[in-house]
From TrEMBL:
<dbReference type="Pfam" id="PF07727">
    <property type="entry name" value="RVT_2"/>
</dbReference>
<feature type="domain" description="Reverse transcriptase Ty1/copia-type">
    <location>
        <begin position="182"/>
        <end position="363"/>
    </location>
</feature>
<dbReference type="InterPro" id="IPR043502">
    <property type="entry name" value="DNA/RNA_pol_sf"/>
</dbReference>
<protein>
    <recommendedName>
        <fullName>Reverse transcriptase Ty1/copia-type domain-containing protein</fullName>
    </recommendedName>
</protein>
<feature type="domain" description="Reverse transcriptase Ty1/copia-type">
    <location>
        <begin position="48"/>
        <end position="112"/>
    </location>
</feature>
<dbReference type="InterPro" id="IPR013103">
    <property type="entry name" value="RVT_2"/>
</dbReference>
Length: 581
């Protein structure tokens, strides 16, 4: 499909976004929202003077292009923008012809050490050089959901120079989000100690700002070929996403600009820039196109933001709240980081969003071993879980040991190993660090020996604080445990909705408030409008909870009996359970 290159009339300010994420160019071209997104991307090319359309030179190497489509979400998981990215097929580039140096610093050159012993080529391993110049065997996270398994450098080679060369050669390909989280935590700790407010900004289409020295030709964008010159190609003046030299070109452009403005590059971390201002220290931490900066003087921070906006096109400037999957809250009491959205997405991806909760990542008597007689499990799924949990360790040190223990069995995972990993996932959902409302609902079926009525119990937490609770005998005699639990959940739903309205006065808006119930039948009854012999007699007023579950006001989930905090409000407990609760 061919479309005109006349994109000057495109209006970037549009109010609606598509919830569909196309997988092909044809799908995108059938959706007006994604057509707008592609026009916006091509407008960026025009404004940044990235390329020039020319006749294809004889014998010239031409690199292909493709569109990549992603829905951008905010810290609550809502889609706020359709992002179309035109990328070059950099895998077809030839070193020495299409590119030279490619290394661009992302974080300080330290690796996550998993110990030097017991390594085999089947493990996810790579050579790296730490700040102490010792060689370590390390595991690198290529992305939050994938472990990269490259070949291992030859440790037995007697030539130290060769080993060091291999180490830095592999460093060129290295992407280490866990390393950078150390720099972020360091910066957050410093800012909190100095009572400094941190801000963030995002450079729009950052790689398009970097200059390249090589002569590179790329194909015209699919779906947007020039109708008058369909066989022409673009000669690049600046970098394009997907080119191997693009990260380095962008970093050099940004580095040179901020140094010219008086900032000093870090001696160890070359993505950190500072500037002494009277008695204050201005700090600026860079992660590709994301920038965090701060100073106790907010006016000077605004000046820095304006300075950057004059040189580069910025798509976001504001207080630091969400960065690389981390949700960040800067309060008077301190700065808090958590990964609630990432955790929710993780559980949804692995189909565990309705799992029972757990209090510890691993049983104290758990002894994981090779388990060669156990049932084999999907190796790709297992590694994906491990990679995701390792990324989560950046804000959850309490699961680090358990995750690393499970990571030792990626070469040949068995059923027992998968169970252990899923237990960790059950823990991460149960311990949120956010200021959220959470309810527990329980019932003791026919506990009253006189009237044979059941007792409803409920408790409600705001953050980690218990703020409301109840214990009440139900008005009617019900015929089953599921029915009694369903009625109790309805009462708890009403209390949560009341608290939700109260929180609006504090400026806190909530949706899909979790309500935990230890009856799987009651949960299914609330989530599905079933009618059968055991439930058809239930009074319609008790289906109040079903309506609010359908609206998305309440998220009713199952919880294990031992993790049911409302149990203490429904019946007498023995000493151990009473003290535990």
């Amino acid at each position: 499909m061919t479309r005109s290159r006349n994109i000057g009339a495109f209006c970037q300010a549009y109010s609606f976004v598509s919830s569909i994420e196309p997988t092909t160019i044809d799908q995108a071209l059938s959706d007006p929202d994604w057509i707008n997104a592609m026009h916006e991307e091509l407008n960026n090319f025009t404004r940044n003077e990235v390329w020039t359309l020319e006749a294809k030179p004889k014998g010239a190497r031409v690199i292909g292009t493709k569109w990549v489509f992603r829905n951008k979400q905010n810290d609550e998981g809502n889609i706020v923008r359709n992002k179309a990215r035109l990328v070059a097929k950099g895998y077809s580039q030839v070193e020495g012809i299409d590119f030279g140096e490619t290394f661009a610093p992302v974080a300080r050159p330290e690796a996550v050490d998993v110990g030097p012993g017991g390594s085999t080529p089947s493990r996810a391993a790579r050579v790296a050089v730490g700040s102490t110049a010792f060689l370590h065997l390390v595991a690198h996270i290529a992305s939050p959901s994938r472990i990269e398994v490259p070949r291992i450098a030859d440790f037995t080679n007697p030539s130290a120079r060769l080993v060091m060369w291999q180490a830095f050669w592999y460093l060129t390909w290295c992407i280490r989000p866990l390393d950078f989280t150390k720099a972020i935590r360091f910066l957050l700790a410093y800012a909190t100690h100095q009572d400094m407010k941190l801000y963030q900004m995002d450079v729009k289409s950052a790689f398009l700002n970097g200059y390249i020295n090589e002569l590179v030709y790329v194909e015209q964008p699919p779906g947007f070929e020039d109708p008058n010159n369909p066989n022409h190609v673009y000669r690049l003046s600046k970098a394009l996403y997907g080119l191997k030299q693009a990260p380095r070109a962008w970093y050099e452009r940004l580095r040179d600009f901020v140094i010219e403005k008086g900032l000093k590059i870090g001696r160890v971390d070359t993505t950190l820039f500072t500037k002494k201002m009277d008695n204050d220290l201005f700090v600026c931490q860079v992660y590709v196109d994301d920038i965090i900066f701060g100073l106790t003087n907010e006016e000077l921070c605004k000046e820095f933001g304006n300075m950057m906006a004059k040189e580069f096109e910025m798509s976001m400037i504001g207080e630091l709240t969400f960065f690389l999957g981390f949700q960040i809250k800067q309060l008077k009491e301190g700065t808090f980081i958590y990964q609630e959205k990432y955790t929710r997405d993780l559980l949804k991806r692995f189909k565990m969003d309705d799992c029972n909760l757990i209090e510890t990542p691993m049983a104290t008597n758990a002894k994981l071993e090779a388990d060669e007689s156990g049932i084999k499990v999907d190796q790709t799924l297992y590694r994906s879980m491990i990679g995701s949990l390792l990324y989560l360790c950046a804000s959850r040190p309490d699961i680090m040991f358990s995750v690393c223990l499970c990571a030792q069995f990626q070469a040949d995972p068995r059923g027992s190993h998968l169970i252990a990993v899923k237990r960790i996932l059950r823990l991460v959902v149960s311990k949120g660090a956010s200021f959220e409302l959470l309810g527990y609902s329980d019932s003791d079926f026919a506990g009253c020996r006189v009237e044979r009525k059941s007792t409803s119990g409920g408790c409600y937490l705001l953050g980690h604080s218990l703020v409301s609770w109840s214990s009440k005998k139900q008005n009617c005699v019900f015929l089953s445990t599921a029915e009694a639990e369903y009625i109790a959940a309805g009462s708890s739903c009403a209390q949560l909705l009341y608290m939700k309205q109260t929180l609006l006065d504090y400026g806190v808006k909530l949706s899909r408030i979790p309500l935990l119930c230890d009856s799987e039948s009651a949960v299914k009854l609330a989530n599905n409008p079933v009618q059968h012999s055991q439930t058809k007699h239930i009074d319609i007023r008790h289906h109040f909870i079903r309506d609010h579950v359908a609206k998305g006001d309440i998220l009713l989930r199952n919880v294990g009996t031992k993790e049911q905090l409302a149990d203490i409000f429904t019946k007498p407990l023995d000493e151990s359970n009473f003290c535990r609760l």
